[in-house]
Amino acid sequence: MILLDGKVISEQMKAEIAQEVENIKKQGGKIPHLAAILVGHDGGSETYVGNKEKSCNQVGFRSTVLRFEDTITEVQLLEEINKLNNNPEIDGFIVQMPLPKHISEQKVTEAIDPKKDVDGFHPLNIGRMTIGMPAYISATPDGIIELLRRYKIETLGKHCVVLGRSNIVGRPISNLLSLKGYPGDCTVTVCHSRTKNIPEITRTADILIVALGQAEYVTADMVKEGAVVIDVGINRIKSDKTKSGWKLLGDVKFDEVAPKCSYITPVPGGVGLLTIISLLKNTLKATKKEIYG
Predict the structure, then answer these.
(1) How confident is the model at residue 28 (pLDDT cuts 50, 70, 90)?
(2) Helices H, strands E: what count in the chain?
(3) Are 90 and 149 within one domain?
(4) C-alpha closest to that of 183 among 221, 216, 213, 143
(5) Of 79, 114, 149, which one is at a domain's C-terminal end?
(6) Is the pLDDT of residue 48 over 90?
(7) What sign has the CA pseudo-torsion 129, 134, 139, 141?
């Protein structure tokens, strides 16, 4: 069993991006500038945006965070997005989710200029990705692809089972792995809450990607010998064995499943560490105008 180490891969990618930025500086080019809009004071969002700023500094990016109280109106937020769309200094930006209930996340997503949509959530980027055109790929699916590529895991003709059909993970990764080329050319089955006989289906998977949000859902009897298992789940569970009173568990019962696998991601330390790296990668592409010219 080989651990798909997100920490190792994220450090490799950071070093590669930092080198590209250094080359841009030497040539007198524009330094990538990533912005984030943060509405309210959600703890998870604060942590993510803080990590984004730290990562930007590490690779030599410029970074801006625009903070607004959760009393901001939808119209006001859309105006702020429009300002960023028209600001030539900003190469890419994200609007951190979740948003207050009085603001439509769909309207906000669609208001972002696709050329600056480094989260990869705009319908235009999703559509381009689906048919194999150059696009900004959303962070978690892109992180999964990087793990497969960098560990040289064979995908051609393999049966990939995806547990979960969310627009953030399940749907995009199932599309990506069914596209022509590497890593792709998989036969993909997508399972969800209405799927019958899930254990029978998962036992046929050469590659099993789990993104359900249910702690330790996948057990050893659901996985065949030699499978590649990628656990996207991050579940915060109460624990009296940790100082914080909490522990993080994936959607896979790791200790039980790992001995059967050829490769498996840990939680934490797997796919999650690659999400901010994917954001940096997309911002670098935006600066170089690789996707839309």
Answers:
(1) very high
(2) 10, 11
(3) no
(4) 143
(5) 114
(6) no
(7) positive
- Provide the pLDDT confidence category of residue 90 given band limits of 50, 70 and 90: very high
Asked whether residue 49 is domain-assigned, the answer is yes
Residue 291 lies inside a defined structural domain of this protein: no
Active site residue 30: no
Identified catalytic residue from 91, 117, 119, 142? 119
Q: Which of 91, 96, 115, 116 is catalytic?
A: 96
Task: Give this prediction's pTM.
Answer: 0.93
Residue 96 has which token pair? 């951190």
pLDDT at 140 over 80: yes
Full domain range(s) for residue 196: 139-274
10 Å Cβ neighbour count for 157? 9
45: tokens are: 């969002």
> How many structural domains does the chain have?
2
Is 119 a residue of the active site?
Answer: yes
Catalytic residue among 52, 115, 281, 285: 52
